[in-house]
Write a structure and sequence with these properties.
The protein is α/β, with parallel strands linked by helices. The chain folds into two domains: 80-403, Alpha-Beta Barrel (TIM Barrel); 409-465. It contains 19 helices and eleven strands. It has helices at residues 21-30, 35-46, 53-61, 65-83, 122-135, 152-164, 184-192, 207-213, 222-226, 228-234, 251-269, 297-310, 324-331, 371-380, 390-393, 399-405, 409-428, 432-448, 451-465, and strands spanning 86-96, 139-144, 166-167, 170-171, 174-178, 198-199, 240-243, 275-277, 315-318, 337-339, 384-386. The strands form two sheets. Strands 1-2-5-6-7-8-9-10 form an eight-stranded parallel barrel, surrounded by six helices. Strands 3-4 form a two-stranded antiparallel ribbon. Helix 17 (409-428) packs parallel to helix 19 (451-465). The longest helix has 20 residues, at 409-428. Bound molecules: S-adenosylmethionine (SAM) and iron/sulfur cluster. Residues 99, 101, 103, 106, 108-109, 145-146, 219 line the site of iron/sulfur cluster.
Length: 473
Amino acid sequence: MHFSPESYRIPDEPMRPFIDAEEIWAFLNRTAPVDEEVDRVIDRSLNKHRLTLREVATLLNAATPSQIRKIKEGARELKRNIYGNRVVLFAPLYVGNKCSNECTYCGFRSSNKAQLRKTLSGEELVKEIEALEDNGQKRLILVYGEHAEYDPAFIAETVRTAYRVKKGNGEIRRVNINAAPLTIEGFRTVKEAGIGTYQIFQETYHPEAYRQYHLRGKKADYNNRLTALDRAQEAGLDDVGIGALFGLYDWRFEVMALVRHTNHLEACYNVGPHTISFPRIKDASMLHLGDRHFVTDEDFSRLVAILRLAVPYTGMILTAREPAALRDELLQFGVSQIDGGTHIELGGYTQKEQKQDLNKEQFLIHDDRSLNEIIEELLAQDMLPSFCTACYRLGRTGEHFMEFSVPGFIKRFCTPNAMLTLAEYLVDYAPAETAREGWEVIDRNMKQLNETVGVEVDDRIKRIKRGERDLYF
Ligand code: SAM
Ligand code: SF4
């Protein structure tokens, strides 16, 4: 793949900081959202181009109801035409909440003595993974505070455990990571354990705001975090996820910076981020942040639509931080991955008491539906829940890019694999009513496949019903 270079005041060089806050503000302040230009930019995205910073600024400045409607319509169309009806499901698993940093928005910050600190023992980790497998999960993201205990060897060992634990027909087929920035050597160590995506969120890309929120510890070093995913690339870990924590600084600035980060990775490594995350600040233990940069639901849905159009080939993740109704709406704008049955308390998947307790978790979540409830609701909306991990296991990296740029890729690979992983879920874990709806959705999707692929999928579904597992294209 090849990306056309763009030039900025700070040229892109590997492992060098690239954010120029003044330049980003200049784009935002000097771009007028004329109707024709808004239409042109949306069209360019629908024609499968990643947008330039100037074009993204145009969409961010668009403010009339009709412009906003067109942006949301554009995102919906892009999602419908390119990605279809699949939604990938995963679960977060918190491994340890010890932390030596002082991020003022986070319940895990070191000064928060109210937080109960815990690292899962090897045995507890196994139990959590078994409980997740019993629910039907296949994809995990392991989450850690930043602490000397959670060094690359420790992270790698927890990843290996996740792959090793198998319960019944259950197994974890993809382990992603959300943890502190590492050195090149450290990234190499975790890559060897076979991780999928390594996510690091910059939180806020504005250097001055960043300084105010990150008071102590390694995370106080803005540039070390900004260049972390470059180090991952240097270590050969080319599957990386970026993100910003919305509510810390101006949301329009953060969207611009996420796109700048994307084109930095494209310019230096010829590969954009695999996923973009856009967590919004939620209540956390002893949290006293002002709401100056609070992002309303309306602005939040706008920003998700704009991100979809800005970076049309990237996976977009929306977590259970957000309530069910908003998540359902945002799925229409191109969110491609959501978590289900989420517990973020350490040991939360094996506990009977399921009430949220701010002193035991990082922040509050607002969607407490079980995995099966989420699957049922997706099916009711004719969406296709997927646990697919095929590309990563076949070494087909950059799958979102392929979905987006290789004609027929989705119909040939993604939809069939989604159907096969859903079929496994229906046979192994679903209650009768979910199974009935699930098979109907599989049947409807079968009719859309071309004949040869349809025959192959049908054959594999029969094999799944006879007890074979892990069949993919
Ligand atoms: N400790 C690692 C780090 O900071 O990169 C791992 C990630 S942390 C456990 C996961 C993410 O949660 C952070 O990157 C941040 O964006 C998000 N987060 C922290 N506090 C939050 C809050 N109060 N509400 C919502 N998200 C929050
Ligand atoms: Fe620690 Fe991460 Fe929370 Fe910051 S966001 S206090 S680094 S767990």
